[in-house]
Amino acid sequence: MTTTTPTDRLAAARETLAAIGQEHVLTFFDQLDDAGKTQLLDQIEGIDWPEVAALIASHVKAKPQFEMPGEIEPAPWYPHTPTDDLRAKYIEAQRTGEKLIRAGKVCCFTVAGGQGTRLGWDGPKGTFPATPIRKLPLFACFAEYIHNIQNRFEVKVPWYIMTSPINDRQTRAFFEKHSYFGLKKENIMIFPQAMMPALDMTTGKVLLAAKDSIALSPNGHGGSLKALFTSGAIADMHRRGVTQISYTQVDNPIVRMVDPLFLGLHEIDNAGMSSKMLPKAYPKEKLGNFCKVHGKVTVIEYSNLPDELAEQRTDDGGLRFRAGSIALHAIKVSFVEKLNTRPSESGISGASFALPWNRAEKKVDHLDLTTGEVVAPDSPNAVKLETFVFDALPMSDVSIIYEADRVDEFAPIKNADAPEGEPENPDSPASSKRIQTERAARWLEKQRVKVPRRDDGTVDAVIELPQVTAIFPDDLEDEKLPSRIEPGSEVVI
Ligand code: UTP
Fold first, then answer.
1. Mean pLDDT, to the nearest integer, of 261-277?
2. How many CB atoms lie within 10 A of CB 317?
3. Alpha helix locations (H) across 311-428?
4. Does the structure show a pLDDT above 60 at 122?
5. Which of 171, 183, 174 is nearest to 146 (CA)?
6. Strand partners of residue 290
7. Cα-to-centroid distance, 326 and ligand 1 (Å)
8. At residue 1, does pLDDT exceed 80?
9. Domain residue spans in the chain?
10. By the 8 A CB rule, do 265 and 78 touch?
11. What proportion of the chain, given as a percentage, has pLDDT over 90?
């Protein structure tokens, strides 16, 4: 039991903040009621202030410069369709992946702690209606996928979801309201990630969101590797006998929550953390580049890859740095555990595990310290600090990359739709729905269903293929299908 009194807590907070020139955080403390005082002190005590002070010097007052590693080459990948020499390995990998799933050794993990500012949806992104006809929310799409896998492999697949303190309550309420989408509540674990204070871009001062609270934002998807451990999710995985985590993002309604082949390749090669890639459509496509740096798979952001490297071609005419990251990973439970528990050189458990911080300039509403009023800036005024999950890849001794198919499994929703009459925005609800229809059309055409197409090849209909029905192209083989889709129609298969 803690014996610290409110007075002691305030004195300790004052001392900590004063030591790094952030005592303004307590400007309104005396005006707060008891609940407000407790909330602010809880926040202050939850922040690693020496780390914040160091980051203000390195990432706010200075802009960290990207240092191009001396030796960099493209990372090798497993192609989507196996070459002759890989055919036997793919068959073994598929079997291995299926065996893992059937044995209950695989769990799903969705990172859903982001703020989704670009989409501008009022609520957690997972609640966004994503499918073209049924308007199924993203979380419901993922639940359908899990139902499919559970039926197919006669197993229960645990689902871990990382939220942030900003959207945790709403996310839980959404699952509750929808009765966990027919999944078992005890197999779904929702936990929040850690937060970082937003910092004034010029002064490095911590911004206040209200008199009783610091302007905090989630610490990036890299925070998931710590949150999995501190939340007890890893311990829960051990209890259930789960050994592999299938890591996916919240923004893609057709994401393969669990992919036997990918998991099988990752398992056979004894990798700690692996990734899926898409061949980039053009040299500077906004996807991280999978490279090999000092023998380790490393993602170099599109903005950091020099043009001359980005534009290099191989003999087949394709880009030399072709593999783009789509933020899908297979991660061994033991890899996450090792990161969080290995002793550092100082002997402190877990202290050696740190991902690099990244600086983002954003607009952050904050309190004016003289008036106590909220200011809504119209240009970026703050630095937010985030870590990225892919920065853990070089920490894995073995890390494989598998090529995914763009239409089969990638229809992300990141940006808001363009205003009516204007060209479609990339990675928007409209582009996602168009890709979902195209995917359904291709899979139906494979089964000889006549799909209407316009002169430019686009589908002249809206088609939705629920994930309970099909998650792989051949799943439609045994389905009763219409012989044709009428032009201009809307069809749920
Ligand atoms: P994005 O990079 O798309 O960021 O996240 P975002 O915060 O969702 O959206 P914007 O940039 O504000 O528009 C990619 C994935 O990582 C998760 C997101 O929820 C999404 O699934 N994420 C991101 C977290 O879980 N936590 C974070 O701190 C950041």
1. 98
2. 6
3. 333-341, 406-409
4. yes
5. 183
6. 299
7. 13
8. no
9. 6-46, 72-414, 428-493
10. yes
11. 94
Confidence (pLDDT) at 3: 60
Whether 237 is in the pocket of ligand 1, judged by its Cβ within 6 Å, is: no
Ligand 1 centroid to residue 25 C-alpha, Å: 27
- Arithmetic mean of pLDDT over the chain: 95
Ligand 1 within 6 A of CB of 118: yes
Arithmetic mean of pLDDT, 318-342? 96
**Nearest residue (CA) to ligand 1, atom 25:** 113
193-233 residue pLDDT tens: 999 999 999 999 999 999 999 999 999 999 999 999 999 99
Beta bridge partners of 462: 490
Q: Does ligand 1 have an atom closer than 6 angstroms to the CB of 124? A: no
| Nearest atom (ligand 1) to Cα of 415 | 13
Please list, in sequence order, all residues whose beta carbon lies within 8 angstroms of the beta carbon of residue 84, skipping any fewer than 6 positions away: none
Beta bridge partners of 329: 247, 275
Q: Does 345 have pLDDT greater than 60?
A: no
| Pocket lining: 111 vs ligand 1, CB cutoff 6 Å | yes
Q: Characterize the bridge pairing of strands 244-249 and 323-332.
A: antiparallel
- Centroid of ligand 1 to alpha carbon of 221 (angstroms): 7
Binding site membership of 309 for ligand 1 (Cβ less than 6 Å) = no
* Cβ of 222 less than 6 Å from ligand 1: no
CATH dotted code for 72-414: 3.90.550.10
Encoding tokens for residue 391?
């920065």
Q: Residues for the chain: how many in total?
A: 493
125 C-alpha to center of ligand 1: Å?
A: 9
Question: What's the average model confidence in pLDDT over 270-294?
Answer: 96
Beta bridge partner(s), residue 163: 192
**How far apart, in whole angstroms, are the C-alpha atoms of residue 188 and residue 168?**
14
Q: What single letter denotes the amino acid at residue 309?
A: L
Instruction: Specify the DSSP class assigned to residue 59.
Output: I
Q: Is 218 in the pocket of ligand 1 (CB under 6 A)?
A: yes
Task: Report the separation in Å between the CA atom of 392 and the middle of ligand 1, taken as the mean of its atom positions.
Answer: 17
**What's the CA-to-centroid distance between 226 and ligand 1, angstroms?**
16
The identity of residue 88, as a single letter, is A
Is any ligand 1 atom within 6 A of the Cβ of residue 116? Answer: yes
| pLDDT of the residue at 71 | 87
Nearest residue by C-alpha to atom 16 in ligand 1: 221
Q: Does residue 156 line the site of ligand 1, with CB under 6 A? A: no
R_g over Cα of the chain: 24
CA of 32 from ligand 1 middle (Å) equals 33
**Segment 340-351 mean pLDDT:** 63
Q: Is 355 in the pocket of ligand 1 (CB under 6 A)?
A: no
**Which residue's CA is the nearest one to ligand 1's atom 17?**
114
Structure tokens belonging to residue 421: 């009459």
Which residue shows structure tokens 């307590």?
Answer: 26
End-to-end CA distance of the chain, in Å? 58
pLDDT at site 344: 60
Extract the tokens encoding 120.
């501008």
In 3D, which of 129, 335, 125 has the Cα closest to residue 225? 335
